[in-house]
Amino acid sequence: MSALLQANDLRRHYRVRSGEGFFAPKSVLRAVDGVSLRLERGRTLGLVGESGCGKSTTGKLVLGLVPPTSGTVRYRGQPLPPVGTSAWRGLRRHIQMVYQDPLGALDRRLPIGTQIEEPLSIHEQVSPVERRDRARAAMESVGLQPHQYERYPHELSGGQRQRVVLARALMTSPGLLVCDEPISALDVSIQAQVVNLLLDLQERLGIAYLFISHDLKVVRQVSHDVAVMYLGRIVEQGEAESLFATPAHPYTRALVAAIPTVNFGGGRQRERFLLQGDPPNPVNVPSGCAFHTRCPFATAQCRAETPTLQPLPGGRMVACHRVHEPALGVAA
Ligand code: SF4
């Protein structure tokens, strides 16, 4: 059976000037470099990594907002049509986006009811009365009050605005929401409410989420599966609970070790493993394993050969030359 979403070997490369001035030579920035993802109906795939690792570009590729340099995206087995075509607009009703900044995603000049109705105006021929009724039902499903229909975005709190964005996304009954840092702009007290709302909507409506975030604590809470990105590539991928309990790739281990409070379960000691330095310039990706400049386990092989994703027991995939070595202390 085909997956809800299947991305195969996605690449998005940009030609950029590698120095100052008009005549500076051009280099290739590999924002996304060979990413494959699979997401089933009603499940959440967490996509994590530091800023600039390519996770947001991957989300845009999945939505078709950015055309890939190479690779394919299939939704329910069908290839994503070219951006801007009527076929693409037709498919976009099934794949919606939730942005980090709800105020930026909304038009400050329009009442929220009008904005929630907007996707229906684009994708369906329905009467104004039906549009209004469905908008009010979507508002209710995300916990907004009927009287807020006439309110403007600036009259709502950050959490309420994100509920408006969610209500608008739900208007076309999407099968997939791409959530790009959907709670990171909200107060901590509001974050939990929005996370609970996302979980509730998934349970009620069977929506799948591609949940893009740098916050591993939240990703662990919402995800069934997790993919970890570093400099445009996936370095580890697998079932969320097991990945957080026994991270295998040294980069994942460092990310998990940095989560403020983690119950590892089974009495496992929390690892002390701090990431050194910043990620390298993506225009000048290190040879071999891109993580070797920050990895305490790097060898000559790591500096020379690029590791590919290899399967571990339990379905985990890890791109590390040394992942099978007991001396590395990997517990996968
Ligand atoms: Fe570290 Fe080498 Fe594994 Fe890369 S391949 S993560 S440098 S041990």
Automatic annotation (TrEMBL):
It is a peripheral membrane protein. It holds the Pfam family oligo_HPY. CDD domains: ABC_NikE_OppD_transporters (cd03257). This is Dipeptide ABC transporter ATP-binding protein. It comes from Reyranella aquatilis. InterPro entries: AAA+_ATPase (IPR003593), ABC_transp_ATP-bind (IPR050319), ABC_transporter-like_ATP-bd (IPR003439), ABC_transporter-like_CS (IPR017871), Oligopep_ABC_C (IPR013563), P-loop_NTPase (IPR027417). It is found in: Cell inner membrane. GO terms for molecular function: ATP binding. Gene3D superfamilies: P-loop containing nucleotide triphosphate hydrolases. Its main location: membrane. SMART domains: AAA (SM00382). Keywords: ATP-binding, Nucleotide-binding, Transport. Belongs to the ABC transporter superfamily. Residues 5-256 form the ABC transporter domain.
